[in-house]
Amino acid sequence: LLFPVSNLCGKCRPRDTDLLQPSLNFLYWSLHQTTPCSQQRAVAVLLSNVSLLELLQKVLECTWLWSPPSRPAYLSSEDALLCSGWLLVASLLLYQHRYNTEVHQTLSVDLTEVLNAVIFRNKKPILLLVSIMQFLRAVLRQNFSSSLLVIVGQNTAPSPTQPQPSSLQDTALHPLAMQQVFSLVVSLQNLLVHKDLLLSQAVVACLETLVEYLYVKNQDVALHVASQPWHRFLLFTLLSGGQKSFLQPEVLRLMTLFVRYQSSNIISQKEISQIIQEAAEANIAELPEATSCALHLFLSQV
Questions:
Q1: What percent of the chain stands above pLDDT 90?
Q2: pTM for the whole thing?
Q3: End-to-end CA separation in angstroms for the chain
Q4: What is the DSSP letter of 242?
Q5: Domain ranges of the chain
Q6: Half-sphere exposure of residue 191, counting CA atoms within 13 Å on the CB side?
Q7: Which residue of 24, 25, 96, 192 has the fewest C-beta atoms within 10 A of its own C-beta?
Q8: Are 55 and 37 in contact (CB under 8 A)?
Q9: Start-end of H helices in the chain
């Protein structure tokens, strides 16, 4: 089925949402729900289809071309198609890297546009934001060096008028700039305050991947980002609702992040003891799977 469905997609235009959206979803789930052996073959089939990749290029570009003010409060068919497109491309990036699959056609993405989509949001639906963040995580994990992807809108060489420390940091973080990193971190923190479960999971995962990327590029910058005092205020905000327990997946994962990068000004021994105490008093067998996994990661990190 991958052959006819992918060929059908390649003959469509981005405006053919009624046909494209379920087709892209089928391709996405074909990648994720098959066996490892078949998965490698499925990736090869999709990446060998040049017309499909050209269609995906057009779909991604529509994210910036379709007017944000026209977006309704609910998820429109156009936004649903964009979600499917970003998720499928993120998956292709992941599996192409895993299996080192031959690439017949590259995709081009403007990094500045991707970052601005998260930083400024511009009335984008939550599911579209989550999909774009999945893509951002994929390129961060691959150090912006995927053979499937061409990054445009990169930072130019530092100006001689810029302060030298900032220039050195921007060079180390390339293609990201220091200012983009801090703007992205602040925006991720603001999105967490919405306390939407799906959005929270995506935001924390994106923050984790970003700090990992920074740590490889420049350890001082990564530790500086992880120890921002605003993080502590964010934790108190997340714990200020009806459920004050530390045993919330996004809270546990944030705590794990701060422990990993030794941000003692954000999480103290007192908070660590509180979490362990709550875990001791909880019925572990009845905890949701997301909470159990997050708790396991936290305790392992401690």
A1: 74
A2: 0.91
A3: 47
A4: S
A5: 1-26+37-106+123-137
A6: 32
A7: 25
A8: no
A9: 2-10, 17-32, 36-47, 50-65, 77-99, 111-120, 126-141, 164-173, 178-192, 197-217, 219-226, 230-238, 249-260, 269-281, 289-301
